[in-house]
Amino acid sequence: MPASVAEAERRRRPPFAANDAGIRARWQAAPIQKAYSPPRGHIRRMTDDFPASVDVDYADGEGEDPADYPSLQHKIEKAIEVTRRGLEQYDNPAVMWTGGKDSTLTLYFINQVAEEFGYEKPTAVFIDHFQHFDDITDFVERWADEWDIELVYARNEDVGAYVDEHGLEPGDDIPVDELNEQNQHHIRDILEFEEDSFPFLLDTYVGNHLLKTVALNNALEAHDIDGVISGVRWDEQEARADETFFSPRHDPDLFPPHDRIQPILQFAEADVWDAFWNYVVPDTVEAFPDEGYVPQADDDLPEGVTQEDVPISPKYFAGFRSLGSEVSTEKTTEEPAWLQDLEDTTERAGRAQDKEDLMERLRDLGYM
Fold first, then answer.
1. Residue 73 domain-assigned (yes or no)
2. Against a cut of 0.90, is the pTM above it?
3. Which of 71, 167, 199, 286 counts the highest number of beta carbons within 10 A?
4. Does 116 map to a domain?
């Protein structure tokens, strides 16, 4: 809670209000240089046109951690700087939106920058891996409509068709030789998986790669996306600790070449919730108090405000701290996520650990 009325007002002001003159001057002085855009449907190769025409610093953030941004305001300023640069530099950026807190905070910054500087809002890509909690899908569709965001679904249609045709449930086996050439290539040649079948589960090596990474890569190609704005954070997972704010993904043998734009690397988990209760929610919900009110239970909302009014997934109110698939994510307590022991417990403890152990290899192949 803010210590005084003055502090409450400072924290409540929109992100652009902090140190306005200096920040605006620095941003407005930055050159706007558009990236090369090949014909739709063409996969970008590693040519002189891409990524050389994109003017970003791939080393920005190298060797840093959240402590290098000592206040919430410092973190917000950097997030807006990176977001604006991303919207300037790429012809067709898109934001990866899972319905989770990190990607929703990232989308909030995108909305702020787009409205302040007149950029077109990028498309939001939602990876449908067929094992979502229903209320996460409902949440994403509701807020895409509220915020006027174009929403597209990335799906591995081949796997989905086999699952539907055979009425599979999570955990049932999928024969490798029943899938199309692309999926078999990824399983045999890229993942070097030798078994005859694999389980229809998201949080496994093969399942995660096919249902998320292959689905994403197909969407990048289909929609000609050259910059992927993502809500990953340094402190969330060890495999993400060395990421930079602009991260190249240029190997055409693994994915359609593109860059990752990562505005909230510098946020710790607690910072994300501070940003929600002091900026995102008050800016979005007219009836919400301006002074940084933090609910102490899932039903402790101001009069006239319901969970549906708040741009936070209901799973966080219910005690989930990190959101994965319906069959492999558990809550560790009944307390809302922001009230849990964020310092001394692991954020992703409720997620299936098979995938967590393989995260670095999965990220090498294109996973977020």
1. yes
2. no
3. 199
4. yes
